Structures are given as structure tokens and as C-alpha cells.
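Much of what follows relies on a compact textual record of a protein's fold. A complete example follows; check for yourself that the lines match position by position.
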Amino acid sequence: MADELEAAMIASAEEVLAEAKELLAESVVEEQELRFAGTRLAESLGDTLRIAASRGGRLESEG
């Protein structure tokens, strides 16, 4: 169950990153769009760091 949730969170982060890159490639972007993208990127980074910490803890307990 945890692995499936982590996979979904990572997939979501990949999608957010791709969308943010597209947005940043635009020559004109509204402030609201940048704030939204920044917020989503921060959320995704937080999720990814939690996953890394969780996996690191599991590796330490196995080793």
C-alpha cells in the first residue's frame, strides 16, 4: 500500500514538474500562474522528501 501511494506521489510530482517547465518556457506568464506553479512544486518537493526519508528509514532498519 505504501509503495503504491509513493508511486502515485512521485508520478504527480513528475507531472507538476513537466507543467512548471512548460510554464517557465513561456515568454509572458501571469503572476498568479507562477504562484500556483510554485505552490504545487513546493508541495511535490515536500512529498518527495518525505518519501526519501521514509525509504531511508526502511533501508536503515533492514541493514
Observations:
- The chain has two helices and no strands.
- Helices lie at 2-25, 31-62.
